[in-house]
Amino acid sequence: MSESSPMGNFHPVDAPGYESILQCMRCGFCLAVCPTYALTNRERSSPRGRAALARAVAEGKLEFTPAVGEEAFFCLDCKACSTACPSGVRVGTIMEFCRSQEQVFHPPSLPAGMLRDFILKRMLPSPALMETSLLPLRLYQRLGIQWAVRHLGVNKFLPDVLAKLEGLLPPLSRPLRPDIPPLTPALGKKRGRVAFFLGCAMSLVFPEVSRQTVRVLSRQGFEVVTPRDVKCCGAPHLAEGDRESARRLASINLDLFLGSDADVIVTDCAGCGCALKEYEELLDGRAERERLGRFRAKIRDISEFLAEAGIRTEELRPVPLSVTYHEPCHLVHGQGLSGPPRQVIGKIPGVELREMKESNWCCGMAGSYALKELETSRKLLERKLAHVKATGAAALVTANPGCHLQLAAGLRELQMEQPVLHIVELLGRSLPA
Amino acid sequence: MLTKAVIDHLRAKVGAENVYHEREDLLVYGYDATPEIEGLPDVAVFPDSVEGVKAALSVCRDERMIVTPRGAATGLSGGSTPIAGGMVLGLTRMNRILEIDEENLTATAQSGVITVDLFNAAAALGLFYPPDPGSQNVSTLGGNVAENAGGLRGFKYGVTRNYVMALKGLLYDGTEFQTGGKCVKDVAGYSLRDLLVGSEGTLGIITEVTVRLITPPQDKRTLLAYFRDIRTAGEAVSRIIAARIIPATLEIMDRMTINCVEDYMKIGLPREMAALLLIEVDGHPAMVAEEAEGVRRILEEVRADEIHQAGNAAEAARLTAARRTALSAVARVSPTTILEDATVPRSRLAETFGEIERLKEKYQVQVATFGHAGDGNLHPTALADERNPREIKNVHAFFAELYEKVLSLGGTVSGEHGIGIAKKSYLLRQFGEGGMGVMRRIKDAFDPGGRLNPGKIFIDRASTSAVRMRGGQDV
Asked: Quick check: A43 and B332 CB within 8 A?
């Protein structure tokens, strides 16, 4: 997104491309789908308004003021506006660049900046360090402190952010990465060889889901290679405006997976899939076009891959369950995948899909947004759960760890019974053990 | 620049959360969807009640401040842009549907209600509000009334004006008005309602709208035809209408639009075709079957090059995909999309297409044309780059000459987008000094001080110093 002319009041490094901003024709179609506009009814908190602010900065009509930075972070980057936009503007991406600009113009205070740097530059790039960091949390749960905190209402006294963080945590088990087999053979008639991109959150928080992904792929006739040296996909860095670290991680993953000799690269994390599909743009000019193109062509979300390859249904057993499906933003808007997850759900005998209203609206998690914009996040979550409830479905299906955490925490808080299931967990239930 | 005292006064009267005066807010209340036009207000106020609107207007009078009413700012002629500064009076927080009256078949709503919300509320009760402007998911009812918005269903079902039964609102001087009602027949006095519909926010602020609802059609059939010669498409349209068939949708797309859609969607559209017609007939199932058959026969008689008829809803969705995607596909081609609104008596459609082709050649501009063939309402859409002044100049010259032709064919310079700022000079050509003088007297009667949405419709007297003009054009 590095293009032509006015940089204006933007800092030259990682400024949003003027071309991409100019593409907005201000038709306003995005206003109908933007959650932050729906909540505020304030134009500057809409995609059209945000694009106009970026344009004003680029054309020198406005400094990069604190308010511009605030809007960049108040944007959920849910990308719903990209789906609605007739002229192909990606305001979420423009805002990601503005988040980078914010670090230059209004850097965080020293302690906050150090913590941010530690997380983005040291912890996330190192899987081993992340796995050790979660150890105290696992102990905390194992020792029953979590139970006590939740049931005795101690977290009512914790500051809001900590309470939210605490509420998000599911029971943690051992991370998957160190244990996952580097090679899982195909069962039945072999249909191909795929590389599995194991995301950090999946490995650390939802190891059972990714175990299912590998099992499903294998039972569907695919040999699965899982490189253990996989790095964070870089999505958190892009979201926080640290494009340099994102590029560093992307280069490592690019080399690692192009060397894996697999037909496709599959992920079960919508956020990772979205980031991986953007490597071509992120690394433009820093890796050969041909390699970037080849890498891009291999990336598939698990639903996308299964729908494309066709699900072998012979050994599927009925799962009598009514479900509703929450579309992760990074799947429906980030990757344009709305049909394939539903096709996969539709193939499972016995499952009844009950569509909820606004199924493609953000649940309010949006990466670290849920911890930063507590109030907005809570409103979006409540709106989402009201729609879930209206369907009367017995389970809530989704396909992304962030949504999974947020929805499960919300259901727990409202004492709703529905379990949250990743699509592959649902499919896994239909396969013989 | 307003003093802090005025801002504080407004905040006290309308609610602090409904008043914006920071630069980052003001910048984004300066535009609508019209390219090249932008103003900068001094304050933006979003009352959530009629009392709030009254209060905001009273502050305006005290300060002798200009007011520009604003709905969702999706307009395509600059009608809601505050080109002379002052206050933007946003009505999007006046968004309550007040009543759906099933005995009188009417709906009453505040003017900031979103068009599709009213449509859905009516549909939930088995009723139908037909006007469907392209921006219906975001546009407000008040904005639709102010611009007399049209849509795809105009030919059979009419436009916004045909559904407005009553209006409530305020003049700049604070006078409250109420015009029309739920009576089907009503000839009492001048129809102020009809003056206000399409007045583009220059006469009064509309706060409440009552519209007529009808019963929805029970059945629908979709047909699609391609033509190697656009004149054959024009002939098909004329013959369908001559056969007394009134389709709910009768849409046309030219070769350039077909190719833009194919570039974008890659769904296998025939690139060599000069035109596509999308036809939907709706109504009672028996009538629909008969009309669909009639349309098909006419398409065969004029020798359309391809005819497709949908057998079910999924196929119908496939057939309408190209038309639904037209704007998206076209808008992606270039940074600046100038969507125009030339309208002719539908018998002159083929001729108008011919003229568009000739002028494209003459001015060397990229123009994709699609639109509502049944209404003679075309949207020639110029694909340009506003950073290229020569190109923009050519685009404006193209439209100026096209509108000359449109007027000579008995057409109008705006079928559904309004005059606003963008078409003031064309309007003068259409109405002449006499017609404009009558309009001016009406404007003066409603707003003698000229402080309500100045700079729109009329060329003179406006202070347009704040308007941004790219490419040196007279806007």
From this structure: no
Least confidently predicted of A135-139, B203-207, B236-240: A135-139
Nearest to A22 among B27, B74, B335 (CB): B335
Nearest CA in chain B to A18: B335
Question: Closest approach of chain B CAs to the CA of A47, in angstroms?
Answer: 11
- Give residue A131's pLDDT band: very low, low, confident or very high (50, 70, 90): confident
Q: Do A86 and B327 touch (CB under 8 A)?
A: yes
What is the second-level CATH architecture of the domain B334-451?
2-Layer Sandwich (3.30)
Taking an 8 Å cut-off on Cβ atoms, the answer to whether A26 and B337 are in contact is no
Q: In A, which residues are within 8 Å of B24 by CB distance? A: 44, 53, 62, 65, 67-68, 71
Closest C-alpha to A166, from A152, A182, A178: A152
pLDDT at A156: 61
> In sequence order, what are the residues at sequence separation of 6 or more whose Cβ sits closer than 8 angstroms to the Cβ of residue A393?
A322, A323, A324, A352, A354, A356, A418
Considering the domain B217-317 in this protein, what is its CATH number?
A: 3.30.70.3450
pLDDT digits (tens, 9 = 90+) for A34-87: 999 999 999 999 999 999 999 999 999 999 999 999 999 999 999 999 999 989
- A87–B331 CB contact, under 8 Å: yes
Burial-class residue B258 by CB neighbours within 10 Å (0-12, 13-18, 19+): buried
Give me the domain span that covers residue A422.
317-430
Q: Give the ipTM of the model, two decimals please.
A: 0.94
A395 within some domain: yes
CA distance linking residue B395 with residue B397, whole number of Å? 5
Q: Is the pLDDT of residue A239 over 60?
A: yes
CB contacts under 8 A, A 13-42 vs B, are 19, 22-23, 25-29, 31-32, 41-42
> A345 phi and psi, to 5 degrees?
-60, -40
Query: Domain tally for chain A?
Result: 3
B75-111: burial string, b at 16+ Cβ within 10 Å, e else: bbbbbbbbbbbbbbbbbbbbbebeebeeebbbbbbbb
Q: Of B22, B72, B337, which has the smallest distance from its Cβ to A28's Cβ?
A: B72
**Mind telling me how many Å the CA of B355 is from chain A's nearest CA?**
27
pLDDT reported for residue A153: 61
**CATH top class, domain B4-90:** alpha beta
pLDDT in tens, B113-128: 999 999 999 999 999 9
pTM across the whole model: 0.92
- How close is the nearest chain B Cα to the Cα of A38, in Å? 11
